[in-house]
Specification:
Strand content of chain A: 15-25%
Radius of gyration of chain A: 27 Å
GO molecular function, one term (chains A, B): metal ion binding
Largest sheet of chain A: 8 strands, mixed
Oligomer: homodimer
Helix content of chain A: 25-40%
Order of helices and strands of chain A: HHHEHEHEEEHEEEEEHHHEEHE
Family (chains A, B): Belongs to the glycosyltransferase 47 family.
Protein name (chains A, B): Exostosin-like 2
Structural class of chain A: alpha/beta
Pfam family, one (chains A, B): Glyco_transf_64
Shape of chain A: globular
Keywords (chains A, B): Disulfide bond, Glycoprotein, Glycosyltransferase, Manganese, Membrane, Metal-binding, Signal-anchor, Transferase, Transmembrane, Transmembrane helix
Number of strands of chain A: 13
Strand order of the largest sheet of chain A: 3-2-1-4-10-6-11-13
Number of helices of chain A: 10
Chain lengths: 331, 331
């Protein structure tokens, strides 16, 4: 009815009013269209993958290779042994040695004099001897994948090549060789341990809820993520000089909402501790080491106001290796 | 400028023209908005999952349980033995027995007389003895997961419970206990086999490109998918009375673009063939059985104009079962 009345108005006036009305309507519709466009799916940030997608096409080596990060303290003889081994691992892009021997010269000169080497090795001199130094977001990192190794751990090339291929299928997880778990107790206090602790009660067999980063592959984006964590987390790691790996598992579990790790059963993994001339026995020999780790689990639950770790019982091995018929059954 | 001229027209005429114009503009904008709305991410069809998402919330049992489909021919004694075993598997929702004994009465009466039973068992009487009868999209199916078993295969409850939990993490794959592979040859002709065939050349160890459906979990949506396949595929299976499992692996590989299967190493899997009184030895004893399967691989590549199967070397076992420390290493 109103339109009819509008028509009776003088032409110019009605024209201008209609013009305004239509302009308003058009603007509103354009805003709606704009809002809908904003809701269209956006290209997800590749930095922290959250599904089992194929990685985006970037420089071939950035996706198909990994960076070894090895922190070292007071075991330079082991370091050099291990460097000779790891420098030749397939798909290795670069080695970053985190040099925690404060004030001491790196073996860079010696390293260069014994060149050429298959891959570049970068010595990152630290100013303070901190456990979490290895979790910096190093600018030298060019690959999506990081292989983190303790400076006393030797894993065979076969195991590493296989585990890397597994990581490529589970890029959002920590894919490694050392599983651990936490246990809930009726008091609500958590405890940390391995298979000697009772099964958390999920049926047959055992479960793990963490994969330690001292022998594991994970996405380099998690280093940046770690730097963003609450100060209390960094303080905890500094206070204990321990637990950086537990913190990383909390971080990954929170990010994915799934079990943080995927356990790959190693065929050949060795601890070279006893082979060192330095006499330095390694942190895990300290009497309080395991108690500290239980302490860390509870502190982190406090900091994050919840327990994000999830259990898994998936154990991955390589089909037909080393035993060509290792999948055979007596059927 | 045009607007100015429009203003000079008699009020009513200009009003109506502007009205028409604005109506057209508004309609166009609404159409654009509608198109944008249509581009918004839609809730994906749950029927054929294509990522490692958590399943949608539906009836609890539909997601947390599976349906056993067991086709049987001339081995009713084994069938009944197996039914007593499988009827008590955790998370089993229902059993569908595909009765290929044409013209013969099912053991339903006897079955009912020996009730009650833990789960319903449905006997689907067939009119023609076809290998692919078991791949019908049975209306009795209420679960997302199917467990398909040959009528001479006994898999332990532990293995099945674990493999089901693995399937829930890989719902788009065939998760099962029997891996096989295809090999390319320089002539371009494919061959079918197991570990006795040479590794396809991917480095260490062996690879598999199929998981047989005679002892495997897969998504029930693939049954509908199978019915949609080209007539030539159905004809091939009917011609050979074989290869339905190879066809399913082709189907799944084409659907996912990934290796079709995930191999779970069984702890206790047994073939009960020799225990049958029927004297019926099973199809795979026929002299031409393996040659037929190589034939099928090449035929399917022809039909689909390409080889969709992909290799995997992932072997999954249960952490800490049956040996509580089966993940231990000598580190």
């Amino acid at each position: 009815m109103r339109w009819f009345h509008l028509c009776k108005l003088p032409g110019r006036v009605m024209g201008i009013r209609l013009l305004r009305l239509t302009s308003v309507v058009i603007i509103v519709l354009l805003l709606v269209a704009g809002a809908l466009t904003a809701l269209l799916p956006t290209i997800k940030d590749d930095k922290l993958p959250n599904s089992r997608r194929e990685p985006k096409t970037q420089t071939q080596s950035a996706l198909d290779s990994f960076t070894l990060i090895m922190q070292t303290y007071n075991r330079t003889d082991l370091l050099l042994k291990l460097l000779n081994h790891y420098q030749a691992i397939p798909h290795l892009h670069k080695v970053i040695v985190v040099w925690n021997n404060i004030g001491e010269k790196t073996p860079e000169e010696m390293w260069n004099s014994l060149g050429p080497h298959p891959v570049p090795v970068v010595f990152k001199v630290q100013t303070v001897n901190r456990m979490r130094n290895r979790l910096q977001n190093f600018p030298d990192l060019e690959t999506k994948a990081v292989l983190m190794m303790d400076d006393d751990t030797l894993v065979s090339a076969h195991d590493l090549a296989f585990a890397f291929s597994v990581w490529q299928q589970f890029p959002e997880h920590i894919v490694g060789f050392v599983p651990r778990k936490h246990i809930s107790t009726p008091s609500g206090v958590y405890s940390y341990g391995s298979f000697e602790l009772q099964n958390p009660g999920f049926g047959n067999g055992d479960q793990y809820s963490m994969v330690l980063i001292g022998a594991a592959f994970f996405h380099s984006g998690y280093l940046e993520d770690f730097q963003q964590q609450p100060e209390a987390v960094h303080a905890l790691i500094d206070e204990t000089q321990n637990c950086d790996d537990i913190a990383m598992n909390f971080l990954v579990a929170r990010h994915t909402g799934k079990p943080s790790g995927v356990f790959v059963k190693p065929v050949d993994i060795r601890n070279l501790e006893k082979d060192t001339n330095s006499g330095y026995p390694g942190m895990w020999h300290r009497a309080e080491h395991l108690l500290q780790r239980s302490y860390c689990v509870n502190k982190l639950v406090n900091i994050y106001d919840g327990m994000p770790l999830k259990y898994s019982n998936i154990m991955i091995s390589q089909f037909g290796f080393p035993n060509y018929a290792n999948h055979k059954n007596k059927m």
